[in-house]
Amino acid sequence: GYTLNMGNSIATSYASGCFMLIISTFKNKNKRYPSINEIISLISKYDDKERNLIEITKRVIEDEIV
Asked: Can you give the three-state secondary structure of the chain, one letter per residue?
């Protein structure tokens, strides 16, 4: 089944997970950790089209791997 989760506590864990996936993918490709500005730059590429952080993360990872 599915559960509806909402609130700051669950949002924080989702956001942390998304950022760590982006950082990990970046590090695997570039052999270094990204700066905060690089993370913001990656995320902001998709912010106009899709405001869901999970979907943005998926798109960033797909583009970074390719």
From this structure: CCCCCCCHHHHHHHHHHHHHHHHHHHHHHHCCCCCHHHHHHHHHHHHCCCCCHHHHHHHHHHHHHC
